[in-house]
Amino acid sequence: MMLKRCFFMTAFMLGVLPAMISFSLAGGESADEYDKPLFPKFDGQGERILLDILKDTEDSDEVRLATLDILGESTEAEREKVLPLLLDILEDTGETDDFRLEVLNTAITLSVSSEKGLAPILVNIIRDEEESYDVRMGVLKELKNAGAQLQERVAEEKNATDDLSTMARDSDLRLSLRAAAHGALEAISPEPVDEFKWRSRYYPEDWEPGYSDEEGRFLHDFSYAGYHKGEKPLPDSPPEPVVDVTESPYNADPSGENDSTEAIQNALDTVGEDGGGTVYLPEGTYRVNPPGDEAMESLLIQHSGVVLRGDGPGKTHIYNSDPQMRSKSVIRVQSPEDGAGWREPLPDTELISIVGTVEAPATEIPMEDVEGVKAGQWVILTHDVTEEFVDDNPGAHEDWASDGIRGFTFYRRVTELCEDERTVTVDIPIRFDLKSRDNARLYRIGPHIEEVGIENLSIGMQEHPGSGFSHRDYGNEGTAAYEVHGAFLIIMQNVVNGWVRRVHSYCPPTNRGPHHMLSNGIMMLQSRNVTISECDLRHAQYRGWGGNGYGYEIRGNDCLIQDCAGGDDLRYVYDFKTMESTGNVIHRCKDEGNTSGAWKRGSSDFHMHLSASNLIDNLELLNDAWFNAAHRGLSGTTPHALTTDQSVFWNTRGMGVARDTRGMGGEEYLINVRDQSGRTFIIGTRGERTGVRGLNPEHRGIYFEGEGLGDNLRPQSLYEDQLERRIQPHENH
Question: Looking at the 3D structure of the chain, how many domains does it have?
């Protein structure tokens, strides 16, 4: 019976009643002449039917909402009868939240000139802590956008402005409710209102390293990222001596007509062997190529203290004219020392087992023995990926253990040794727990190259003239994709305290397409405390699978990418890979997406195998760009699966419309966490896109607060605030 009644009433409301109205209007009077109240035209029948339907809680919300639509067009006289009923419903917490909010909207519409008790009801709902969150939020939002007369009536209610001010400051309330209260306060207050500010619950005013909330959740101290852990600025002036490669005895050709590889390489080697300095490339174009089939780079910096410097991007150009660059780079910075890699210890040195479970973010490491370890030594702390490790980290894949995926690897300097306690203290906290169960251990490796930089120049690569650029062609010998697979502009490998500054990619004039580089831009590989600053990378020719089309690739510890940009024809702009990638920071950077629309690009991303405890701080995602922090399932030879844990997105700005690799657009999200089981903190978003895709109540590891409130977040930058606290702990905190 109820179903039949709902069907009848729906038909009546949406069809019969409008027809009756039309019939009555046609009864001898034109519509233009008709200005009498609607309800009396039916001798009271229409009015009673509408009000009875509205009061009947057994009617469907669909029918009652249709009634509201008609009542919303009632005349001034009719409002005297309608409005009291609407106010009764608004106060009735037994009604559904959605219906009450629709009633609220209609009540505000009908009370433009006569509030008739609406203002005190709104204030009571706002004050009522037992009231539902949705209704309180709805009232606050409606009040912010209401007419001036209603806002004035609310402001006249006793203590209304004080109550809203208290709500806006109450840290125990949900952040969105506080922000809405502040917005309503701004709307009704006759006096100027202080700017709304909020702090993350995970980063209180008295935060210090090691702080965690009652559930054990914490933010890492990311202030150690970058050149000399942020304790020194990048050098302002080039180190002496400054060697001009265009002068004798090097005589590099700045016209680009002749190959300058040998001249520049000789200068780099001579300056390095003499203890360091600057190899200066004056304005011009310098053509280079890998010197022989076995060479893995065109230019190699292998000595500490060497800086390769030009006159600025757009002035000094390094042009790599050979498109046969599979797994090669234009410039490689790498230690020549044997044993500098992170995967194996130095020959004839001891592996020392770590005792028990060492929880992040510890700096003191209990050891089975400390014999042979000395303060000042550089060491590796690492572990194996065991079946137990996989079980402990939901979302990791069982093949990680059988395929030999390497566990977390921390490159650290020993600062203190306690032989009695058999502990080692290191200079930067570990970023993930180390367990003896997983064969956690310490060992020494060879020295890294230090104080090296590349700055003030542009790098471009000759495009490949061939064909065969499909996603899988990187493995098909004879295709163009095969011959450019894994090519880089710059690789920083086994480097500590180095930098790349003001380096841009560019399109050589000989390229027919817009291509700047064959495949990839800059990679930090098994390096620590490297800063990439003010760089701009775009337009990869090949963006296929297998590791191609990346802008900035991070495979190291505590590196900093700052004030950089990328986009246009890149598969990924910023990219984290493997468990070697921890403690890194992307700060004040831009992913500009694809402005041309020709390439349905992917995103910046956490790519594979649990790159944990990294910070994305004040990243701008423009045009169609988005950041992928999702679980990646079975992608890859060994499934990429769980991609991150304990990482933080801080104050992210989204503009434009997100679009994924399939070209699916119209999305309002800026970060994707679909199926992610690792702990991910998203704190403050702003701009045109503020949402997060893939939020699921069953995935309790995603902590999202401050949607759309990034402009009011304090501090605006987590990295800057943590660095200030560590470097100047007593001045401002």
Answer: 1
